[in-house]
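Lab channel / #folding
Pinned by the channel admin:
"Please post every new chain as: sequence first, then the structure tokens as a reply. Keep commentary short and put observations after the output so the thread stays searchable."

First post following the new format, from NK:
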Amino acid sequence: MVGRRVAITGLGLVSPYGGDLANFFKRLCAGETAIRHLLTDDQPRPLSIPFVACPAFDADAVLGKPLAAMMDRFAQLGMAAAFDAWDSAGLPRSAGEESRDDWGVSWGTALGGTLAYEKGYRELWQRGRERLSPLSVLLGMNNAANAHISIQLGLGGASTSHTVACASSAVAIGEAFRRVRSGEATVMVTGGSDVPQAYGVARAWEALRVMAPGNAETSPSACRPFAGDRRGLVLGEGGAALVLEDWDHALDRGANIHGEIVGYGASCDHSHLVRPEVAGQVRAMQAALADARLAAGDVDYVNAHGTATAEGDPVEIAALKSVFGKRAETLPVSATKSMHGHLLGAAGAIEVIASVLALRDDALPPTINLAGNLDPACTGVEHLTAARHGAAPRAALSNSFAFGGSNAVLVFRAVRQ
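Reply from TO:
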């Protein structure tokens, strides 16, 4: 579709490293993991898993106690990331003379306020309470994050949440892109947030047998996408946000443009709930490239979905080889989940930020724990095991492939200023 150009003018996240956006990307490029060991005090059996947390995040300090008290942690992380992206875009938090009636929010979350509901179960069944807080529904609803973002920033346009498992925020970003490109919206805040350390959620993922094991010593190296000895994914919490803006509007106000979003493709494998399929992923990537009006040879970096699961990794590599043909052999690919973990509904958003910064800063982050350990079933692309600088990448793909067979692919173009 030919429409308005869409600028990325704001980037924000709650970093698992505890620093700002620049610090986050610097540590990604340095190959530094944020994965640690999570040991809870739950009885009779505590959680003992590799995990990526945001321990430095203080919702009361960032948002203020009254606002933080109205939110489950997933919405707190989302609101903090959105504020960060909004400030990065140089936009005032209070609306001035310019109408924001068509400015909106498109947010992704796989779990929503699961922690709020789990707290309710504990209160009722373990502590014998008969009533819950009247805020419980408001804390737990999946659209809480986008609703709060719209309210706090005075955005009167569409305010939607997307729940598509691991592709939730990628779909949210793609739909936000379409709204700005079509002229329906001038500005969209988009991204995702999730908090998967609820006891029931973590136990459910354990039961699926796709989570990497680990203890205090081994957890930092537990996530090994594309490696021959990979054991599974590592969950993480977080929030990541972008501000997408009509290109001319951004130029008129003198905004700093981090990059340009140029394509979005989606598909469904329509074959199996948890077993990915090459053909479905190929359709999504081809649709995204066609939407961006780019050829395979125009892409200089792929941020892979790369979860470190036995079935998922080889399928993604096979799909990349199908789409990129001979180019695949020299196509730089990395899976940053190896460092920041799998944020479920926020995974696409944090990986989009990594992709946009890779283009903007001319630095391609690596897949760690892979050097000398590549699974023969994952050969055929150029796996980055160390950061690459000075390659002047022109365009990047960010892949998100979810349970349910839902695939979402986003395409970005570098903006040299």
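NK: The mean pLDDT is 96.
TO: also worth noting, Residues 73-88 form the longest helix (16 residues).
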